[in-house]
């Protein structure tokens, strides 16, 4: 078993990663960034040759992705990226709504210890003048995900943060389709700014209302997604 060692940028912690871990991470990125889209079929040999690794770590990575609901094995014909399960996405969005609205209420309670540095960092991005806004859909999608994760993390409940990150990971592939249109990028900036201003003013009910509307809009866009849009996203990703 081949191992990969790495250190984080701000600590001396050594991270042990197997070759299967590396393949798993790469394939998950490929799915999330639409280099592999729902319905795509492939073999272990094809992945092995593309990534320059043996079939063993590829198989281990694929079984892990199968357990997480990203791919399925086909009888005598390789593997396939699973189609979107929209019912599951609806349920995950509902859970996300509960976690995030609870978090913003806590961020507005003055007797709680919260991470104000995280909120200040968010303000630098989302309260910036309009001329400084990014129009890069990939970058804005990443910042949007970081925004929502930071809101929960700043509230200081480690278990809520862990569950929210798991939900975030599972909806990432479809959530990024919400940023293929420029109007949605502009709306995200405006809506995030309003949420942050409400939090800064300790208006918990208002912040939760704005956040709920923001997530519901994104959820509505998800319902409109078609396979054609997925393939267009792959083309746009290059």
TrEMBL record:
Q: Which SMART domains match?
A: FCD, HTH_GNTR
Domain (HTH gntR-type) spans 17-84
Return the protein name.
Answer: GntR family transcriptional regulator
PROSITE patterns attached to this UniProt entry: HTH_GNTR
Q: Which InterPro entries match?
A: AsnC-type_HTH_dom (IPR000485), GntR_C (IPR011711), TF_FadR/GntR_C (IPR008920), Tscrpt_reg_HTH_GntR (IPR000524), WH-like_DNA-bd_sf (IPR036388), WH_DNA-bd_sf (IPR036390)
Which SUPFAM superfamilies did the record assign?
GntR ligand-binding domain-like, Winged helix' DNA-binding domain
Q: Which UniProt keywords apply?
A: DNA-binding, Transcription, Transcription regulation
The record ties this protein, via PANTHER family, to: GNTR FAMILY REGULATORY PROTEIN (PTHR43537:SF45), TRANSCRIPTIONAL REGULATOR, GNTR FAMILY (PTHR43537)
Cite the source lineage.
Bacteria, Pseudomonadati, Pseudomonadota, Betaproteobacteria, Burkholderiales
Pfam hit, one: GntR
């Amino acid at each position: 078993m081949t191992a990969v060692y790495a250190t984080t940028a701000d600590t001396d912690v050594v991270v042990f990663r197997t070759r299967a871990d590396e393949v798993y991470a790469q394939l998950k990125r490929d799915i999330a960034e639409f280099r592999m889209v729902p319905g795509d079929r492939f073999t272990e040999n094809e992945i092995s040759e593309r990534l320059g690794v043996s079939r063993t770590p590829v198989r281990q990575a694929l079984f892990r992705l199968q357990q997480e609901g990203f791919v399925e094995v086909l009888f005598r014909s390789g593997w396939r990226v699973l189609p979107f399960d929209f019912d599951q996405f609806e349920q995950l969005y509902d859970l996300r709504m509960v976690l995030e609205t609870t978090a913003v209420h806590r961020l507005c309670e003055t007797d709680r210890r919260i991470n104000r540095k995280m909120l200040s960092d968010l303000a630098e991005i989302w309260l910036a003048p309009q001329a400084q806004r990014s129009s890069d859909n990939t970058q804005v999608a990443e910042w949007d995900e970081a925004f929502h994760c930071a809101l929960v993390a700043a509230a200081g409940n480690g278990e809520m943060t862990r569950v929210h990150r798991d939900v975030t990971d599972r909806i990432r592939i479809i959530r990024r389709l919400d940023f293929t249109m420029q109007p949605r990028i502009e709306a995200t900036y405006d809506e995030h700014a309003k949420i942050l201003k409400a939090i800064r003013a300790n208006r918990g009910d208002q912040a939760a209302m704005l956040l709920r509307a923001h997530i519901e809009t994104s959820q509505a866009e998800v319902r409109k997604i078609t396979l054609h849009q997925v393939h267009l996203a792959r083309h746009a990703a290059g």
